[in-house]
Every structure is written in structure tokens, then in C-alpha cells.
Amino acid sequence: MSEIAVHALVLSLYMILLIGIGVLTSRRMRSAEDFYLGGRKIGPWVTSLSYVAAYFSSVVIVGGGGFAYRYGMATLWIGAINVLVGCTLAWIVLGRRLRRFSERLGTMTVPGFLAERFQTNGARIFTALVISLFLVIYNVSILQGMGRMFEVLMGIPYAAGVLLAGAIIILYVSFGGYLAVVWTGFFQAWVMGAGLILLTVAALKAVGGLSAANAALAAIDPGLIGTPGLWGWAGLISFALIVSFGVWGMPQLVVRFFSIKSTDVLRIGTVIATIGGSMAVLPYLDGAIARVLHPGLASPDHAIPTLTKSVLSPWGSAVFLAGVVAAGMSTFASILIITSSAVVRDIAQKGFKLRLTEQQSIRWSRMVSAVGGLVSLGVALRPPALILVLTAFSFAVIASACLWPILFGLYWRRATR
Residue 36 and residue 49: Cα distance in Å, rounded? Predict the structure, then answer.
């Protein structure tokens, strides 16, 4: 069987599984709370691993490997800080209080929490508009990452890869809502972990071990193995904190704490999220090894795809490709459900007092999920030259609008509008 045929077979089976999850979870949809939060009955394993899958998108795997290819082993600190701040501390600081506050205030969304906590509908409308606009832009880079991986590893045209991945995600999110998002995220976290471990083991074997990799990097440039290395302290620390602390304000991650079934399971969820999140270190290690095995690549972003093709068998590279696609899909799906809740729940129903029955609310949410996905899909097919700048700007705007109001709302009794 040819390499392309193996990739196609593995991905086809994977896509069928995702669609099946979407169809099955759609049968459990009885209310808007089911669509947005899974009825607040999600267990710690599914919640924590879907959190990890939504956090570490294909941008982290491909882009993180590219950073390591350029700056060396010091970038492993980025992955380590992601785990400590973005996973462990986020669950400890936000988890328990958000779960209690959201249930006490009767809110299902981040804009809803801010509106009820600060007693102002303006906060709801403003935050919902920011989320619905900038998350759609943020999703474009995720589709780009998946499209590039299809292009490099399978020879599929970029546009076809984007259309395939986007269509599957839109389908299962529109059908299954939040339950489909967290359950597919749960499976996708395992696929991501398996793919990254396979690649790392094969890469270490090809380079002759970690010591040999460090020696080879030192021969290229001693700055590739030191800390802070070529990047410098300012670059290393600032970037690590942005992508770790900033996620505390990202609604697609924060909403996990709204939906977990009780505060009693948060402790085990924190442990699972920390262990699962540890996979974030691996793309940086793989990218640094790629600098040794494949020096002189035209673009650092080619490091992970090129390494995958050179050190893994067709079946192994198929699993890794599935892992990259899983990383992108989980984040994209999480953003779609947040966008639909912001538009339907916060802007239409709460902001403009549009009266909808539970079934009408679910129907509208499915439609908005599909439309939001199609908009991102359309932009990703012909992305503007400054898409990476727009993506970074979108991340910053959303985090700025949500992070500090959430923290002050949870920990400062005297905080008011």
C-alpha cells in the first residue's frame, strides 16, 4: 500500500469516528444548556483532556516546532510554562470558583458570567461581540495549519485540505454541540499524544539520542542549547507568558470549568490536565532535532512536516498527521461552539431579548456554528498576507477583554462596573 493510501485510510477512519460521535451526541440534546455545556455533567477525564486538546492546536505543533528549529532547546521552557501556568495554575485558580459562580448566577457563557457578576448588560454585549468577531479570525490560522500539513504530507492541494477538515468539524459541531466538542476532544487528545510520542521517539533514535542532538546543535551554534539561547530572556519570557497566562481569558478553554459535573472532581481533573498537557514540550524538542537532521530548510515551519516524512514509516506518519489534524480540529470545534453561544445566547436572547424556545435556541445555535465555520473556511482559502499578525492580535484582544474581568470578578468582592 502506498504512503498516500495509508494516510487516506487512517484519516478516513478517523473522520468517520468524529462524525459518529457528533451523530450520537446529537441524540442527547434536550435543551440549550445541553448544547452549550453538556448539561453540566461532564466528568474530569473528558473535561481535562478536551481542555488540553483545545489548548494545544496545530499551531502549537507546527509553529512550536518551527520556533525550536530557529531558536533551539531553550524553547522547551515555553512548553514547560504552558503546562505549569496554562494547565495546572489555570485549573487551580479558575476551576473551582468559576464552576460555583456560573451555577449560582445561572450563566452558561463567559459574557453571561460577566454580565451577571457586574450587573450590566453592556458587558455581555461588548464581550460577546469581541468573542464572535475575533474568534472567527483566530480560527483561520488553525485551518491554515491543517491545510499545510495535508499539502506537505499527502500532496493534497492546500484548498482541498482546508475544505475537508473544515467541513468535517462544522458537521459534527452543528449536530452534537458541546458534547460532541468535548468527546471528540477527549479522543483527539489521545491521538495527539500518540502522534507526538511516536515522532519524538523516532527523531531521538535517528539523531542518536538527546546527548548527540545537543552536541550537534552546539556545533551549529552554542546558543541553540543554552538558556535563554538565541532568543534572549526578553523574547523567551514574554512569549511564554503570553501563550500561557493569556489562555486564562480564552472562552473556549474557560467554559470547561462551567461544564464539569462538580467541584469535587476538579482535583483529579487538574492532575490529568497537567499530565496530558506535558505533551506540549515535545514539538519543541522535535523542532530542535529537525535542525540537526535537516539544516537549511526554506522555512522553520517546514521542520515538523519534513522530520515526520524522514523518520516515520507511512503508518507512523499517518498517525502523526491524524494527531496534527486532531489538534487543529479540537480547537476549531471549541471556538465554533463559543461563537454560537455568544451570538445566540448573549447577543440575540439576552442582549436584544429575542424569545426562543429550547428547540429554537438549539436550531439557531447549529445554524450560527455552521455560518461561523464557513466564514473562517472562506477566509482560510484565500488568507490575507497579514493573517499571522491578525491572529496574534485576535488572541490579545480576546484575552484582554475577558481575563482581568474574570479574575477580578472571582477574587475581588468590591469589583464593580
Answer: 18
**C-alpha span between 60 and 83 (Å, rounded):** 13
pTM of the model: 0.88
Q: How far is CA 216 from CA 270, 306, 387, 404, in A?
A: 37, 18, 35, 44
Residue type, 196: L
Nearest to 62 by CA among 162, 142, 168: 142
Q: Where are the alpha helices (DSSP H) in 246-386?
A: 251-259, 266-277, 282-293, 303-311, 314-340, 358-381
Rounded to the nearest 5°, which phi and psi values hold at 246?
-60, -30
Strand partners, 260: 42
Strand segments, DSSP code E, in 160-267 are: none
Residue 254, by phi and psi: left (phi above 0), alpha (psi -120 to 50) or beta? Answer: alpha
Residue 260, classed as helix, strand or coil, is strand
Strand, helix or coil for residue 42? strand
pLDDT digits (tens, 9 = 90+) for 263-285: 888 999 999 999 999 998 999 99
Measured between alpha carbons, how far is 307 from 77 in angstroms, rounded to an integer? 21
C-alpha cell at 207: 539523531
Q: How distant, in Å, are the alpha carbons of 164, 171, 375 from that of 167?
A: 5, 6, 12
Asked if residue 64 lies in contact with residue 301, where contact means CB atoms within 8 angstroms, the answer is no
User: In 10 A of CB 316, how many CB atoms?
Assistant: 18
Angle at the Cα of 91 from the Cα atoms of 262 and 282, rounded to 5 degrees: 130
8 Å CB contact between 366 and 180: no
The residue behind cell 492580535 is 393
Partnered with residue 42 across adjacent β-strands are 260
pLDDT tens-digit map of 46-81? 999 999 988 887 777 888 898 899 999 999 999 999
Find, among 282, 274, 310, 280, the residue nearest to 295 by Cα: 310
Q: Of 153, 183, 184, which is closest to residue 168 (Cα–Cα)?
A: 184
What's residue 389's pLDDT?
A: 62
The one-letter code for the residue type at 417 is R
Answer whether 308's CB lies under 8 Å from 97's CB.
no
Contact in structure between 236 and 72 (CB atoms under 8 Å): no
Instruction: Determine phi and psi for 56, rounding to 5 degrees.
Output: -95, 85
- Residue 228 preceded by cis peptide, ω within 30: yes
